[in-house]
Design a protein that fits this description.
25% helix, six-stranded mixed sheet, 423 residues, alpha/beta
Length: 423
Protein backbone atom coordinates (compact mmCIF):
# COMPACT_ATOMS: atom_id res chain seq x y z
CA UNK A 1 0.00 0.00 0.00
CA UNK A 2 1.34 3.43 -0.92
CA UNK A 3 2.20 5.65 2.03
CA UNK A 4 0.69 8.97 1.01
CA UNK A 5 0.95 10.65 4.40
CA UNK A 6 4.08 9.16 5.92
CA UNK A 7 7.10 7.20 4.78
CA UNK A 8 9.18 7.17 7.94
CA UNK A 9 6.76 6.51 10.81
CA UNK A 10 8.60 4.81 13.73
CA UNK A 11 11.76 6.53 12.48
CA UNK A 12 10.65 10.01 13.47
CA UNK A 13 12.90 12.37 15.36
CA UNK A 14 11.54 14.52 18.18
CA UNK A 15 12.53 17.85 16.62
CA UNK A 16 10.03 17.94 13.71
CA UNK A 17 7.17 17.01 16.04
CA UNK A 18 8.29 19.65 18.54
CA UNK A 19 8.49 22.24 15.77
CA UNK A 20 4.91 21.49 14.65
CA UNK A 21 3.51 21.85 18.18
CA UNK A 22 5.54 24.98 18.96
CA UNK A 23 4.60 26.72 15.73
CA UNK A 24 0.91 25.98 16.27
CA UNK A 25 1.15 27.39 19.80
CA UNK A 26 2.90 30.55 18.64
CA UNK A 27 0.37 31.18 15.84
CA UNK A 28 -2.57 30.84 18.24
CA UNK A 29 -0.76 32.96 20.81
CA UNK A 30 -0.36 35.81 18.31
CA UNK A 31 -4.01 35.55 17.22
CA UNK A 32 -5.29 35.56 20.81
CA UNK A 33 -3.21 38.63 21.68
CA UNK A 34 -4.42 40.50 18.60
CA UNK A 35 -8.07 39.39 18.99
CA UNK A 36 -8.27 40.48 22.64
CA UNK A 37 -6.03 43.56 22.30
CA UNK A 38 -3.61 42.37 24.98
CA UNK A 39 -0.60 44.66 25.23
CA UNK A 40 1.65 42.48 27.39
CA UNK A 41 1.83 38.68 27.53
CA UNK A 42 3.87 37.31 30.44
CA UNK A 43 6.07 34.31 31.04
CA UNK A 44 3.88 31.65 32.72
CA UNK A 45 6.40 31.03 35.50
CA UNK A 46 7.24 34.62 36.54
CA UNK A 47 5.82 35.54 39.99
CA UNK A 48 3.65 38.67 40.13
CA UNK A 49 1.13 40.18 42.52
CA UNK A 50 -0.77 41.85 39.67
CA UNK A 51 -3.30 40.35 37.28
CA UNK A 52 -1.55 39.35 34.05
CA UNK A 53 -2.25 37.44 30.84
CA UNK A 54 -0.45 34.21 29.95
CA UNK A 55 -0.87 31.82 27.02
CA UNK A 56 -0.02 28.16 26.51
CA UNK A 57 -1.09 24.56 26.01
CA UNK A 58 -3.10 22.70 28.65
CA UNK A 59 -1.83 19.38 30.01
CA UNK A 60 -2.32 17.08 32.98
CA UNK A 61 0.31 17.24 35.73
CA UNK A 62 0.16 13.49 36.32
CA UNK A 63 -0.22 12.46 32.67
CA UNK A 64 1.62 9.47 31.33
CA UNK A 65 2.00 8.67 27.66
CA UNK A 66 -1.79 8.43 27.32
CA UNK A 67 -2.55 12.08 27.99
CA UNK A 68 -4.47 11.59 31.21
CA UNK A 69 -7.93 12.74 32.23
CA UNK A 70 -8.04 16.25 33.59
CA UNK A 71 -9.50 17.15 36.97
CA UNK A 72 -9.67 20.60 38.53
CA UNK A 73 -6.66 19.64 40.69
CA UNK A 74 -4.20 18.42 38.03
CA UNK A 75 -4.48 21.05 35.26
CA UNK A 76 -1.27 22.77 34.17
CA UNK A 77 -0.19 24.98 31.27
CA UNK A 78 2.99 25.08 29.22
CA UNK A 79 3.94 28.36 27.57
CA UNK A 80 5.61 28.85 24.21
CA UNK A 81 9.36 28.91 23.76
CA UNK A 82 9.27 32.54 22.58
CA UNK A 83 7.19 33.94 25.44
CA UNK A 84 7.80 31.51 28.32
CA UNK A 85 10.95 29.56 27.43
CA UNK A 86 8.61 26.51 27.34
CA UNK A 87 8.16 26.70 31.13
CA UNK A 88 5.03 25.28 32.71
CA UNK A 89 2.99 25.93 35.85
CA UNK A 90 0.03 24.26 37.63
CA UNK A 91 -3.32 26.08 37.52
CA UNK A 92 -5.71 26.89 40.36
CA UNK A 93 -9.22 27.00 38.89
CA UNK A 94 -11.15 27.73 42.09
CA UNK A 95 -11.72 31.41 41.22
CA UNK A 96 -12.69 30.77 37.60
CA UNK A 97 -16.45 31.00 37.00
CA UNK A 98 -16.54 28.99 33.78
CA UNK A 99 -14.12 26.79 31.88
CA UNK A 100 -13.88 23.70 29.69
CA UNK A 101 -10.39 22.28 29.34
CA UNK A 102 -8.74 19.24 27.76
CA UNK A 103 -5.10 18.15 27.16
CA UNK A 104 -3.61 19.93 24.15
CA UNK A 105 -5.99 22.90 24.23
CA UNK A 106 -4.39 26.29 23.52
CA UNK A 107 -5.80 29.05 25.73
CA UNK A 108 -5.05 32.50 27.11
CA UNK A 109 -5.57 33.01 30.84
CA UNK A 110 -5.98 36.06 33.05
CA UNK A 111 -4.95 35.78 36.71
CA UNK A 112 -1.96 36.06 38.99
CA UNK A 113 1.07 34.03 40.02
CA UNK A 114 1.88 35.17 43.58
CA UNK A 115 4.70 32.75 44.41
CA UNK A 116 5.78 31.26 41.09
CA UNK A 117 4.42 27.84 42.07
CA UNK A 118 0.78 28.02 40.94
CA UNK A 119 -1.19 30.34 38.66
CA UNK A 120 -4.58 31.47 40.02
CA UNK A 121 -6.99 31.76 37.08
CA UNK A 122 -9.77 34.33 36.79
CA UNK A 123 -10.67 34.06 33.11
CA UNK A 124 -9.86 31.56 30.35
CA UNK A 125 -10.19 32.43 26.66
CA UNK A 126 -10.05 30.12 23.64
CA UNK A 127 -9.25 31.23 20.07
CA UNK A 128 -12.10 32.42 17.84
CA UNK A 129 -14.17 30.03 15.76
CA UNK A 130 -12.49 29.00 12.54
CA UNK A 131 -13.23 31.14 9.51
CA UNK A 132 -11.96 30.85 5.97
CA UNK A 133 -8.21 30.74 6.59
CA UNK A 134 -6.21 30.92 3.36
CA UNK A 135 -2.91 30.59 5.21
CA UNK A 136 -3.88 27.22 6.72
CA UNK A 137 -5.56 26.15 3.48
CA UNK A 138 -2.43 26.89 1.46
CA UNK A 139 -0.26 25.01 3.95
CA UNK A 140 -2.47 21.93 3.94
CA UNK A 141 -1.78 19.25 1.38
CA UNK A 142 -4.49 17.52 -0.63
CA UNK A 143 -4.47 13.73 -0.83
CA UNK A 144 -7.81 13.09 -2.50
CA UNK A 145 -6.74 11.03 -5.50
CA UNK A 146 -9.75 11.77 -7.66
CA UNK A 147 -9.83 13.54 -11.02
CA UNK A 148 -13.33 14.92 -10.37
CA UNK A 149 -12.34 16.59 -7.09
CA UNK A 150 -10.28 19.75 -7.51
CA UNK A 151 -7.06 20.50 -5.66
CA UNK A 152 -8.91 22.70 -3.16
CA UNK A 153 -11.22 19.80 -2.23
CA UNK A 154 -14.32 20.96 -4.11
CA UNK A 155 -16.63 19.10 -6.49
CA UNK A 156 -19.65 20.20 -8.51
CA UNK A 157 -22.55 17.82 -9.13
CA UNK A 158 -25.57 18.25 -11.40
CA UNK A 159 -28.71 19.49 -9.67
CA UNK A 160 -31.96 21.16 -10.62
CA UNK A 161 -31.97 24.96 -9.91
CA UNK A 162 -34.31 24.90 -6.86
CA UNK A 163 -33.62 21.36 -5.75
CA UNK A 164 -32.53 20.45 -2.21
CA UNK A 165 -29.37 18.38 -1.98
CA UNK A 166 -30.18 14.98 -0.49
CA UNK A 167 -27.39 13.26 1.42
CA UNK A 168 -27.19 9.93 3.27
CA UNK A 169 -24.48 9.14 5.83
CA UNK A 170 -23.62 5.76 7.35
CA UNK A 171 -20.73 4.54 9.46
CA UNK A 172 -19.28 1.05 9.99
CA UNK A 173 -18.98 -1.59 11.15
CA UNK A 174 -21.03 -3.11 8.32
CA UNK A 175 -20.76 -6.77 9.43
CA UNK A 176 -22.37 -8.40 12.44
CA UNK A 177 -20.34 -10.35 15.00
CA UNK A 178 -19.39 -13.82 13.75
CA UNK A 179 -20.11 -13.12 10.08
CA UNK A 180 -18.55 -11.41 7.06
CA UNK A 181 -21.83 -11.39 5.12
CA UNK A 182 -22.91 -8.09 3.57
CA UNK A 183 -26.63 -8.57 4.23
CA UNK A 184 -27.02 -5.47 6.41
CA UNK A 185 -24.99 -3.33 4.02
CA UNK A 186 -27.19 -4.68 1.23
CA UNK A 187 -30.30 -3.47 3.04
CA UNK A 188 -28.82 -0.01 3.43
CA UNK A 189 -27.72 0.18 -0.21
CA UNK A 190 -31.19 -0.80 -1.44
CA UNK A 191 -32.83 1.85 0.75
CA UNK A 192 -30.43 4.57 -0.35
CA UNK A 193 -30.70 3.63 -4.02
CA UNK A 194 -34.50 3.82 -3.83
CA UNK A 195 -34.22 7.43 -2.55
CA UNK A 196 -31.82 8.41 -5.38
CA UNK A 197 -29.80 10.92 -3.30
CA UNK A 198 -27.14 13.26 -4.67
CA UNK A 199 -24.59 12.28 -2.01
CA UNK A 200 -23.92 9.03 -0.15
CA UNK A 201 -21.14 9.12 2.48
CA UNK A 202 -19.85 5.79 3.82
CA UNK A 203 -17.43 5.96 6.74
CA UNK A 204 -15.20 3.22 8.14
CA UNK A 205 -14.44 0.86 9.59
CA UNK A 206 -15.26 -1.44 6.68
CA UNK A 207 -13.05 -4.32 7.83
CA UNK A 208 -13.12 -3.63 11.56
CA UNK A 209 -10.10 -4.82 13.54
CA UNK A 210 -12.45 -5.25 16.52
CA UNK A 211 -14.59 -7.73 14.57
CA UNK A 212 -13.99 -11.23 15.96
CA UNK A 213 -13.28 -12.92 12.61
CA UNK A 214 -11.29 -10.07 11.05
CA UNK A 215 -9.31 -9.33 14.22
CA UNK A 216 -8.30 -13.01 14.50
CA UNK A 217 -7.72 -13.42 10.76
CA UNK A 218 -10.12 -16.37 10.76
CA UNK A 219 -11.54 -15.79 7.25
CA UNK A 220 -11.17 -17.71 3.99
CA UNK A 221 -9.89 -14.80 1.91
CA UNK A 222 -7.40 -11.95 2.22
CA UNK A 223 -8.42 -8.60 3.65
CA UNK A 224 -7.73 -6.95 0.30
CA UNK A 225 -9.97 -9.39 -1.57
CA UNK A 226 -12.75 -8.98 0.98
CA UNK A 227 -12.51 -5.19 0.79
CA UNK A 228 -12.49 -5.17 -3.02
CA UNK A 229 -15.58 -7.41 -3.01
CA UNK A 230 -17.26 -4.88 -0.70
CA UNK A 231 -16.37 -1.95 -2.98
CA UNK A 232 -17.55 -3.85 -6.08
CA UNK A 233 -20.81 -4.53 -4.27
CA UNK A 234 -21.31 -0.84 -3.46
CA UNK A 235 -20.35 0.32 -6.94
CA UNK A 236 -22.70 -2.15 -8.67
CA UNK A 237 -25.68 -0.67 -6.82
CA UNK A 238 -25.06 2.85 -8.10
CA UNK A 239 -24.21 2.25 -11.74
CA UNK A 240 -25.98 4.77 -14.00
CA UNK A 241 -27.38 6.77 -11.06
CA UNK A 242 -26.85 10.40 -10.10
CA UNK A 243 -25.53 9.42 -6.67
CA UNK A 244 -21.95 10.38 -5.84
CA UNK A 245 -20.51 7.96 -3.27
CA UNK A 246 -17.76 9.12 -0.88
CA UNK A 247 -15.85 6.42 1.01
CA UNK A 248 -13.62 7.26 3.98
CA UNK A 249 -11.56 4.74 6.00
CA UNK A 250 -11.15 4.48 9.75
CA UNK A 251 -8.05 4.07 11.86
CA UNK A 252 -9.56 0.66 12.77
CA UNK A 253 -9.67 -0.63 9.19
CA UNK A 254 -7.59 -3.80 8.80
CA UNK A 255 -6.18 -2.79 5.40
CA UNK A 256 -4.95 0.63 6.56
CA UNK A 257 -2.03 1.68 8.72
CA UNK A 258 -3.31 2.30 12.25
CA UNK A 259 -1.82 5.79 12.19
CA UNK A 260 -3.73 9.08 12.21
CA UNK A 261 -4.36 10.69 9.74
CA UNK A 262 -5.35 7.69 7.61
CA UNK A 263 -4.57 7.14 3.95
CA UNK A 264 -7.52 6.88 1.55
CA UNK A 265 -8.29 3.37 0.34
CA UNK A 266 -6.17 2.26 -2.60
CA UNK A 267 -8.09 0.87 -5.60
CA UNK A 268 -7.05 -0.01 -9.13
CA UNK A 269 -7.09 2.49 -11.99
CA UNK A 270 -9.54 0.20 -13.75
CA UNK A 271 -12.00 0.46 -10.85
CA UNK A 272 -11.71 4.26 -10.82
CA UNK A 273 -12.32 4.50 -14.57
CA UNK A 274 -15.32 2.18 -14.43
CA UNK A 275 -16.94 3.90 -11.44
CA UNK A 276 -16.42 7.63 -11.78
CA UNK A 277 -19.09 8.31 -9.14
CA UNK A 278 -17.13 6.49 -6.39
CA UNK A 279 -14.69 8.77 -4.53
CA UNK A 280 -12.14 7.78 -1.89
CA UNK A 281 -11.34 10.28 0.87
CA UNK A 282 -8.60 10.32 3.51
CA UNK A 283 -9.44 10.43 7.20
CA UNK A 284 -10.11 13.21 8.11
CA UNK A 285 -11.38 15.25 5.15
CA UNK A 286 -12.79 18.61 4.20
CA UNK A 287 -14.71 18.64 0.94
CA UNK A 288 -16.93 21.28 -0.61
CA UNK A 289 -19.88 20.00 -2.67
CA UNK A 290 -21.72 22.62 -4.72
CA UNK A 291 -20.53 25.28 -2.30
CA UNK A 292 -21.54 23.36 0.85
CA UNK A 293 -18.52 22.77 3.10
CA UNK A 294 -18.37 19.33 4.74
CA UNK A 295 -15.95 18.37 7.53
CA UNK A 296 -15.81 14.58 7.93
CA UNK A 297 -14.01 12.35 10.43
CA UNK A 298 -14.43 8.69 11.36
CA UNK A 299 -12.16 8.88 14.42
CA UNK A 300 -14.05 8.99 17.72
CA UNK A 301 -12.72 12.34 18.90
CA UNK A 302 -16.08 13.06 20.57
CA UNK A 303 -15.72 10.20 23.04
CA UNK A 304 -12.06 11.01 23.67
CA UNK A 305 -12.75 14.68 24.38
CA UNK A 306 -15.68 13.79 26.64
CA UNK A 307 -13.61 11.33 28.67
CA UNK A 308 -10.52 13.54 29.09
CA UNK A 309 -11.97 17.03 29.64
CA UNK A 310 -12.82 18.89 32.84
CA UNK A 311 -15.43 21.62 32.83
CA UNK A 312 -17.39 24.05 34.93
CA UNK A 313 -20.18 25.53 32.90
CA UNK A 314 -23.79 26.65 33.03
CA UNK A 315 -24.41 24.49 29.96
CA UNK A 316 -24.52 20.72 30.44
CA UNK A 317 -24.28 20.02 26.69
CA UNK A 318 -20.89 18.30 26.52
CA UNK A 319 -21.42 17.10 22.95
CA UNK A 320 -21.90 20.60 21.54
CA UNK A 321 -18.96 21.80 23.63
CA UNK A 322 -16.70 19.21 21.97
CA UNK A 323 -17.52 20.60 18.53
CA UNK A 324 -16.86 24.10 19.86
CA UNK A 325 -13.38 22.96 20.90
CA UNK A 326 -12.60 21.42 17.49
CA UNK A 327 -13.82 24.48 15.60
CA UNK A 328 -11.93 26.91 17.86
CA UNK A 329 -8.73 24.85 17.99
CA UNK A 330 -9.08 24.38 14.20
CA UNK A 331 -8.24 20.70 14.38
CA UNK A 332 -10.05 17.41 13.75
CA UNK A 333 -8.09 15.89 16.65
CA UNK A 334 -6.88 18.61 19.06
CA UNK A 335 -5.94 16.32 22.01
CA UNK A 336 -2.26 16.25 22.98
CA UNK A 337 -0.79 13.98 24.08
CA UNK A 338 -3.30 11.62 22.47
CA UNK A 339 -4.67 8.61 24.38
CA UNK A 340 -2.84 5.31 23.93
CA UNK A 341 -5.28 3.95 21.33
CA UNK A 342 -4.61 6.83 18.89
CA UNK A 343 -1.20 6.91 17.16
CA UNK A 344 -0.60 10.28 15.51
CA UNK A 345 2.05 11.27 13.00
CA UNK A 346 2.22 14.97 13.91
CA UNK A 347 3.89 16.11 10.71
CA UNK A 348 1.10 14.45 8.72
CA UNK A 349 -1.46 15.76 11.23
CA UNK A 350 -0.19 19.28 10.62
CA UNK A 351 -0.53 18.82 6.85
CA UNK A 352 -3.85 16.99 6.66
CA UNK A 353 -5.89 17.20 9.87
CA UNK A 354 -6.43 20.91 10.45
CA UNK A 355 -9.74 22.69 9.85
CA UNK A 356 -9.27 25.67 7.54
CA UNK A 357 -12.88 26.72 6.92
CA UNK A 358 -16.06 26.81 8.98
CA UNK A 359 -18.14 23.83 7.82
CA UNK A 360 -21.82 23.95 7.00
CA UNK A 361 -21.99 20.28 8.03
CA UNK A 362 -19.60 18.59 10.48
CA UNK A 363 -19.83 14.78 10.55
CA UNK A 364 -17.99 13.15 13.45
CA UNK A 365 -18.57 9.43 14.01
CA UNK A 366 -18.76 8.20 17.59
CA UNK A 367 -19.67 5.10 19.58
CA UNK A 368 -21.92 7.39 21.58
CA UNK A 369 -25.63 7.63 20.74
CA UNK A 370 -26.52 9.35 17.48
CA UNK A 371 -27.14 13.09 17.79
CA UNK A 372 -27.26 16.39 15.93
CA UNK A 373 -26.25 19.80 17.30
CA UNK A 374 -26.06 23.33 15.96
CA UNK A 375 -22.78 25.02 16.79
CA UNK A 376 -22.04 28.53 15.51
CA UNK A 377 -24.08 28.05 12.32
CA UNK A 378 -22.64 24.60 11.71
CA UNK A 379 -24.82 21.46 11.76
CA UNK A 380 -22.83 18.87 13.72
CA UNK A 381 -23.88 15.24 13.80
CA UNK A 382 -22.94 11.71 14.74
CA UNK A 383 -24.76 9.30 12.39
CA UNK A 384 -24.27 6.39 14.78
CA UNK A 385 -23.05 2.92 13.84
CA UNK A 386 -24.82 0.82 11.22
CA UNK A 387 -24.04 -2.36 13.17
CA UNK A 388 -23.59 -2.83 16.91
CA UNK A 389 -22.54 -6.41 17.67
CA UNK A 390 -25.31 -8.59 16.27
CA UNK A 391 -27.90 -5.78 16.10
CA UNK A 392 -28.57 -3.24 13.40
CA UNK A 393 -28.05 0.44 14.16
CA UNK A 394 -28.85 3.70 12.39
CA UNK A 395 -27.91 6.00 9.54
CA UNK A 396 -28.52 9.70 8.85
CA UNK A 397 -30.39 11.53 6.10
CA UNK A 398 -29.62 15.20 5.44
CA UNK A 399 -31.68 17.60 3.33
CA UNK A 400 -29.73 20.71 2.30
CA UNK A 401 -31.55 23.70 0.73
CA UNK A 402 -28.57 25.04 -1.20
CA UNK A 403 -30.34 28.07 -2.68
CA UNK A 404 -31.65 29.19 0.71
CA UNK A 405 -28.19 28.83 2.29
CA UNK A 406 -26.52 30.80 -0.50
CA UNK A 407 -29.07 33.60 -0.14
CA UNK A 408 -28.69 33.79 3.65
CA UNK A 409 -25.97 36.16 4.84
CA UNK A 410 -26.23 35.33 8.54
CA UNK A 411 -27.31 31.70 8.95
CA UNK A 412 -25.17 29.48 6.76
CA UNK A 413 -26.99 26.28 7.84
CA UNK A 414 -30.42 27.77 7.20
CA UNK A 415 -33.00 25.03 6.65
CA UNK A 416 -30.65 22.01 6.86
CA UNK A 417 -32.68 19.07 8.20
CA UNK A 418 -31.16 15.91 9.72
CA UNK A 419 -33.18 12.76 10.38
CA UNK A 420 -31.98 9.46 11.79
CA UNK A 421 -33.37 6.17 10.55
CA UNK A 422 -33.05 2.73 12.11
CA UNK A 423 -32.27 -0.05 9.70
Amino acid sequence: MAHLFYEDYLYKKHKPKSDVLERLLEINEQQLVKMNEIHNLYNVSVPTQDDIWICGRIFSENAGSGGGKLTEHNVAIQGSYVCSNSHSIPLNLSHCNEYSLFPGQIVMINGRNPDGKRFFCKEIIEPNFVQENKQIKNELKTKILDSLISEDGSIEILMEPDENMLCFVASGPYMTTGSTDLNILDQLLDIVKSKNPHIFILLGPFLDLNHDLIGSGNIQTTFEELLQNLFDHIASKFVNTRTQVFIQPSVNDATQEQIYPVNPFSVSNQFQKMHRNIHFLPEPSMIKINGIQFAITSTDVIKDLTSMAVSKSQSSDKLARNFVHMLKQKSFYPIYPPPDHVCIDFEAWNNYARIYSHPNIFIAVSDMAKFTKEVNNSVCLNPGRLVRGTATGAYAQISIPIKKIQESEQNKNSGIEVTFNKL
